[in-house]
Structure prediction request, 438 residues.
Amino acid sequence: MNTKQTYISEIGGHLGEEVAIKGWLYNKRSSGKLGFLEIRDGSGLIQGVVSKKDVSDSTWDASERATQESSIIVRGAPREHPKKPGVYELDVHELEIVQLAHEYPITPKEHGVEFLMDHRHLWLRSRRQQAILRVRHEIIRAVRDFFDDDGFILCDTPIFTPAACEGTTTLFEVDYFEDKAYLTQSGQLYNEATAAAFGKVYCFGPTFRAEKSKTRRHLTEFWMVEPEVAYAKLDDIMTLAERFLSSIVGRVLDRRKEELKQLERDTAQLEKIVPPFPRLQYDDAVKLLQQGHAEGNLESRFEWGGDLGSPDETYLSGLYDKPVMVHRYPAAVKAFYMESDPDRPDLALCVDVLAPEGYGEVIGGGERAASLELLMQRINEHGLPESAFDWYLDLRKYGSVPHAGFGMGIERAVTWICGLEHVRETIPFPRMLYRLKP
RNA sequence: UCCUCAGUAGCUCAAUGGCAGAGCAUCCGGCUGUUAACCGGGGGGUUGUAGGUUCGAGUCCUACCUGAGGAGCCA
Prediction:
């Protein structure tokens, strides 16, 4: 067994050669003296064929004994599949069992969500989960490349924070020596500091929300990428968001065709994601929602002044085949740091980007309050302790400029791009209400 | 926190208030081109928990536990 290891994804370049595949037994079928082994090695899947008359007794015996997910090293010669043109199989010469797997819980039949989530550490080995996580990987690479190539500096923000960033959502509290700390719910306030240092910055890391949300769109721990740009206005970051989303969707279409096919994603819907995206002012969104209600397509009538609910977002996003950017919400329903519209001071210069096909909000952002006076007024209105924000207020004392940014939840983007029902499959080990294991 | 639904073999499910079953997995046997392979056989159960109704409860009632979906809130 000295043959060099070859990855299944590279096997096409080694036809007729003797190669070694180091991996696991995915599934097995046999037809008497002929065995069919589905072998995976992380890079792909290949069928190995073992013929009793052509191999040693020990190899034949190993092929019969090997159980699902046993780790195996297989030596043989890759060749074209006799029935499937363009597909390779491995003519197995030698098979060694590295470890004989115990009875594997995830059998080749259907399973329920709870069972699969309890076995998430093993579920990750399945084809579908691998396809999703490869798309996630591609999206993360695309995100980094987009900002890196556009002159942004990665400036990661702290995970332990002294107080609420936004003072709205519930935070996870942890002991911090003799003090209390909270897990971050956004890097944005710190981004504003680094943006004043570097001009264009982004942070990308885990984010925590202790909300008792129990829906297919929520995790308690998720990854968020947040760009922040000095001297940018609302329109500038809407344009940025538009270019950004188009870029990552295009990248996945370009490089992860196989995975999207495996997931049975309708890629025609993704091909449409190119600038410009529709921009819808909140006032007009309200009119559309009320019209939708009048026509019987929305259960409750939406009144001006409230934040968009989940059914409202679903309805609005269903009106377009591209992400729709809803901007200028009433300031009262948005975070304290939002800049107000000079023409309509009751409106905040903010934007939510709703993904099409009913996927809802994937991006939220806006222009930040630039003046010390407005910010202090807002902090008081929201009943927040001024002392917690002293350093943040400094940013308005020393060279304050208009600036704007947004945040995108990676898992929601992956859910949308993969066309999934639930965010829980888009992160290796999801953390949800009532789900902390494995 | 609220609303709805569901818990039966390791897994996915069936069983009119009347003997608790099938497929997959596992074990044994068969099969030289299989594709969630197939064919024959074996083992495998405190029906989520605690009460109650009944001659008799997996099935009906009450409470609790666990999970799923939705609302609110959010990315």
About this structure: Chain A has two domains: 8-99, 121-426.
